[in-house]
Structure formats: structure tokens, C-alpha cells
TrEMBL record:
Residues 184-213 are annotated as: Disordered. This is Uncharacterized protein. It comes from Oreochromis aureus (Israeli tilapia). SUPFAM superfamilies: Lipocalins (SSF50814). Transmembrane segments: none annotated. Residues 1-26 form the signal peptide. Keywords: Glycoprotein, Secreted, Signal. Residues 190-213 have a biased composition (Low complexity). It holds the Pfam family ApoM. It is found in: Secreted. GO terms for cellular component: extracellular region. It comes from the Eukaryota. Its main location: secreted.
Length: 213
């Protein structure tokens, strides 16, 4: 006795091998929590207006386009059908406001933008410990590229340093660059265009929060 049987040694080796394989493949533990899409979200959770606080994407011309915006507001609202919501994004460039409207359908943890068939745009919400924030992941697939964008939105114009650090950690999990952090002193645009009915004309659908150049 005291000598392990050959079978138990084999079993220990197999378990060790599987363990090593798993450890080498798993993302850092912090990422598992940060990248997991939230499901069972009621669309009305997002209702109302949000300010874009920070964003990052793996396409440098779009990062530059994001930097050129003074502010970005996002409105989610109910529609008559439970599984759809409407999304309005308002970009400020100096004293100009650009209104972009989309319908979004919700299925499980995936929110799909109703855009022209030129590309597909899916949105997911990720974990955040900031109580009045949401973190959105956009996955864009077009004939030219597949990209991932991450955006931190809040009911506030700027968030605590630790909340921004958590977002930075999320970006690292996706190997995305340092975020563009919006200037909280720049004014947001009003929810509805003022005295400019032509602004409601639908511009061509854009592939990301930041328009391509
Ligand atoms: C949106 O829908 C939710 C759930 O059905 C409801 O509680 C909320 O009052 C609705 N909001 C508006 C503005 O209709
Ligand atoms: C959203 O859906 C509604 C109802 O189907 C439709 O009337 C509206 O034109 C759509 N809006 C956009 C921007 O596609």
C-alpha cells in the first residue's frame, strides 16, 4: 500500500493535462465577467437619453471621426411592439446637430439594427458596475470588414475614474485601443431638431457610432 496504482496515476496526469490546456486557453478571469453579454434585459431599461462618455473601435478612421464630434446623445424609446425599440443618435459638430434614427429588434441578448442590407449591425450590452451607465458592444459585419466597437454611455456627462478604468479593462479584453473620452463641457443637442424640418430626412445608415470617412 501507499503506492498509487498505475490507473490512478494516469487519471491524475489526464486531469492535470486538461487543467493546463484550459488554463492556457481561458481569457483572464476579469475578462469573463466583463465581456459576457447581459441577457434578459427589458428594453425599457434603456429608455430615455444617454450621453456618450467614451468609445473605442478597431478602425482608426472611425476613431478619428469620433474625436471630431463635440457630443453624442443616444435616445432609446419604446415602440408599439414589445420586441422592438427605436434608437436616435444625435451628433453635435459645433452648432450643427445630426439626427440618425433606427429601429432595433431585440432577441435574447442580441439587439439588431434595422439597416439597409449593405451591412449588419448587432448590439449587445455588457457588464458595468457603474449604476447609471450602459456599456454597448457593436458588431459590424460588412463586405469590407468585421469590427467590434465598445461604447460607455451614462445618464451623467462624465463618470468616476474607477468606472472609466473598468471600461478600459473591458477594452483590453477585446484588444481595443485607448478610448476617445468625450469632453463633458460640450453641450448636448436637443432631442428634436429645432426649426429645421429637413434635418429629419433619413441620411444613409452609418456603420458605427462614428461615421466612416
Ligand atoms: C415602455 O414599456 C415599459 C414596459 O412595457 C413600460 O413600463 C413603460 O412605461 C413604457 N414607456 C413608455 C414611454 O411608453
Ligand atoms: C421604424 O418602424 C416604424 C414602424 O414599423 C416605421 O413606421 C418607421 O418608419 C421605422 N423607422 C425607421 C427609421 O426605419
Amino acid at each position: 500500500m501507499g503506492k498509487p496504482s498505475r490507473n490512478s496515476l494516469v487519471a491524475v496526469c489526464a486531469v492535470t493535462l486538461i487543467y493546463l490546456m484550459c488554463v492556457s486557453q481561458a481569457a483572464p478571469p476579469v475578462c469573463e465577467r466583463l465581456v459576457h453579454p447581459l441577457d434578459q434585459l427589458a428594453p425599457h431599461h434603456f429608455e430615455g437619453s444617454w450621453a456618450l462618455v467614451a468609445g473605442s473601435l478597431n478602425h482608426s478612421p472611425s476613431m478619428e471621426a469620433l474625436r471630431r464630434r463635440d457630443s453624442i446623445t443616444m435616445y432609446f424609446s419604446n415602440s408599439s411592439e414589445a420586441s422592438t425599440l427605436s434608437y436616435t443618435q444625435i451628433n453635435r459638430f459645433g452648432d450643427q446637430c445630426q439626427y440618425l434614427r433606427y429601429n432595433i429588434s431585440a432577441e435574447g441578448s442580441t439587439f439588431t439594427f434595422d439597416v439597409q442590407s449593405r451591412f449588419s449591425l448587432s448590439m449587445y450590452f455588457l457588464h458595468t458596475s457603474c449604476p447609471d451607465c450602459v456599456v454597448m458592444k457593436w458588431v459590424v459585419k460588412s463586405s469590407r470588414r468585421i469590427s467590434t466597437d465598445l461604447y460607455l454611455l451614462s445618464r451623467r456627462r462624465e463618470v468616476e475614474q474607477k468606472e472609466l478604468e473598468e471600461f478600459r479593462a473591458q477594452l483590453k479584453c477585446y484588444q481595443l485601443p485607448e478610448p476617445v473620452v468625450m469632453d463633458p463641457t460640450k453641450e448636448l443637442c436637443p432631442e428634436q431638431p429645432e426649426n429645421q424640418p429637413t434635418a429629419a430626412a433619413a441620411p444613409q445608415a452609418e456603420e458605427t457610432v462614428a461615421q466612416k470617412t
